[in-house]
Specification:
The chain is an alpha/beta fold. The protein has one domain: Aldolase class I (TIM Barrel, Alpha-Beta Barrel), CATH 3.20.20. It is built from nine helices and 16 strands. It binds (4S)-2,6-dioxohexahydropyrimidine-4-carboxylic acid (DOR).
């Protein structure tokens, strides 16, 4: 039997499988399908200090190889989020599934304020994920992750707020320089990638299929790009990485591990098959066994070029 436990920058997971923010409700919605406590971790939907409405509908559509969304980080604000889900999430931690709370902001001050609230109101959380890569908000979001200087500024501001692990969710840019800047400012881990801005046009009406002209594409369409970016980040920094992008099978997850990821997140696949995450875990374990190792950690970054 292969040991599957991994350490994502201080977040000690019983297996490498996490769920990508925004694709997994806040966990409890999936309990009817399997025991969510068996996952390595879950990452909750981005939450800001105060409630955000998000963008008008329609804000999600299916494409042949993925999903396009322009949600715009709709969230109830940290206080209401904790009031609704805190008890369930604290219970998940007790079941051995790590809870990573994602933090959103329109400005550096807002990221700091949201993290301060989480620090105070979410004692159960094993770590936080700072989202500096949402393509669907006009202020903050991806703008914060677009340059090494902006990313470093956010990281420097949030670092003093908590001693718990901070993961930073990166945009699909030239990752090397930005990853190094985040590591230098004290990030414990990086997660990559977020969705990639794309367009979907309804040719009959000549309008966007969504409420905004551009929106983020996720799913199998972006998997190969994400694997390449994880490999680039792996060569640029020594902090652990969480690979995200089009994981629908254990094989997809294994590619991320070989490219240098310590953990992997299942995202869009949760919306297609609600049992995808535990299946990915079983298939990943079978693959690790087939590689003749006793510990999955031996396979991290074991890609040979
Ligand atoms: O594709 C995304 N959609 N990425 C994010 O980071 C946030 C989300 C949204 O709410 O728009």
């Amino acid at each position: 039997k292969v040991s599957m436990a991994v350490d994502l920058g201080g977040i000690r997971m019983k297996n490498p499988v996490n769920t990508a923010s925004g694709t997994f409700g806040n966990g409890w919605q999936f309990e009817g399908f399997y025991s969510v406590g068996d996952l390595g971790a879950i990452t909750t939907k981005g939450c800001a200090a105060e409630a955000w409405d998000g963008n008008p509908a329609p804000r999600m559509c299916e494409l042949p190889s993925g999903i396009m969304n322009s949600v715009g980080l709709q969230n109830p604000g940290v206080r209401a989020f904790i009031a609704s889900y805190g008890e369930y999430l604290a219970g998940l931690e007790e079941r051995g599934c790590r809870v990573i709370c994602q933090v959103a902001g329109h400005s550096i001050e807002e990221y700091v304020r949201a993290l301060e609230l989480f620090e105070e109101l979410a004692p159960f959380a094993s770590g936080f994920e700072i989202n500096i890569s949402c393509p669907n908000v006009s202020k903050g979001g991806a703008a914060m992750g677009a340059t090494a200087a902006a990313a470093a500024e956010v990281m420097a501001a949030v670092r003093p707020v908590t001693k718990r692990p901070i993961v930073v969710k990166m945009a699909p840019h030239d990752v090397g320089e930005i990853a190094r800047a985040l590591e230098a400012e004290g990030a414990d881990a990086l997660s990559l990638i977020n969705t990639i801005p794309g367009m979907a046009i309804d040719v009959r009406t000549r309008r966007s299929k969504l409420s905004r002209p551009t929106a983020g594409i996720s799913g199998p369409a972006i998997h190969a790009i994400a694997v390449r970016m994880v490999w680039e980040a792996h060569r640029a920094v020594s902090i652990p990485l969480c690979g995200i992008g089009g994981v629908t099978s254990g094989e997809d997850a294994a590619e991320f591990i070989l490219a240098g990821a310590t953990a992997v997140s299942v995202g869009t696949a949760n919306l297609v098959d609600p049992t995808a995450a535990p299946r990915v875990e079983r298939e990943l374990e079978a693959w690790a066994e087939s590689q003749g190792v006793s510990d999955i950690n031996e396979l991290i970054g074991a890609f040979e070029c």
